[in-house]
Specification:
One of its GO terms (molecular function) is hydrolase activity. It holds the Pfam family Ham1p_like. Belongs to the HAM1 NTPase family. This is Non-canonical purine NTP pyrophosphatase. It is a single chain. Strands 1, 2, 3, 4, 5, 6, 7, 8 and 9 form a 9-stranded mixed β-sheet that branches. The chain has one domain: Maf protein (Alpha-Beta Complex). With 216 residues, the chain is an alpha+beta fold. It starts with a strand and ends with a helix. It is 28% helix and 24% strand.
């Protein structure tokens, strides 16, 4: 059984589009502080594996705004709670130039741990599975696959990214930064759940992990 460390039912539904058997695991591990997502997800995966003793995946995600040097990045949840989404959007738009147009990206890293070592890196994702995103910039599918060891239990990482820009809030759906993040002319909050999942950063990471996991 593969355990997904989350209490978010929406994440589990999205994961089941790519994985045959996955069950949510309610496990509250202590997150480390890092300027990048990968170490946070890797630490969580190791902690969860030690807790449950079975294969686990942990994800960490964030909004990275180019004009703000990647802020809020790994601190996105904390910044949302303290500063607020609209304030972040105002700051980003105030810093934009004609060249960057408040460019930003949503990124997600999925970390997998089962206590064993890993072989070759995964094959590239079949982009045909992301049918609603055929026009996406090639950078949006760039991934950082790695086996993190550091003398402890190995962790395999899968990254997904979707490019966009920061705009005035629009839309009633989604959550978090969705109203201010526009991709191909539409904010995440203006999309249906199916439309958003078809191009989401988490979906990209899950697709790549799913392809690799099916071969284990």
């Amino acid at each position: 059984m593969l355990h997904y460390v989350t209490t978010n039912a929406g994440k589990v539904r999205e994961a089941r589009e790519y994985l045959d058997q996955v069950t949510p695991l309610d496990y509250d591990y202590q997150e480390i502080q890092s300027e990048t997502l990968a170490p946070i997800a890797a630490y969580g995966a190791r902690a969860a594996f030690e807790h449950v003793g079975e294969p686990v995946i942990v994800d960490d995600a964030g909004l990275f705004i180019d004009a703000l040097d990647g802020f809020p990045g790994p601190y996105s949840a904390f910044v949302e709670e303290t500063l607020g989404v609209e304030q972040v959007g105002q700051i980003a738009r105030a810093q934009q130039t004609d060249s960057d147009r408040a460019s930003a990206s949503f990124r997600c890293v999925i970390a997998y741990c089962d206590g064993e070592s890993f072989g070759a890196t995964p094959e590239p994702v079949d982009r045909g599975r992301r049918g609603q995103d055929l026009a996406a910039d090639e950078r949006a599918t760039a991934t950082t696959d790695d086996t993190v060891d550091s003398g402890t239990v190995p962790v395999k990482l899968f990254e997904g990214t979707v490019l966009g820009r920061i705009v005035e809030p629009r839309g009633e759906g989604g959550f978090g930064y969705d109203p201010i993040f526009e991709h191909n002319g539409t904010t995440f909050a203006e999309m249906t759940a199916e439309e958003k999942n078809a191009i989401s950063h988490r979906g990209r990471a899950l697709a790549k992990f799913g392809d690799w996991f099916a071969k284990r």
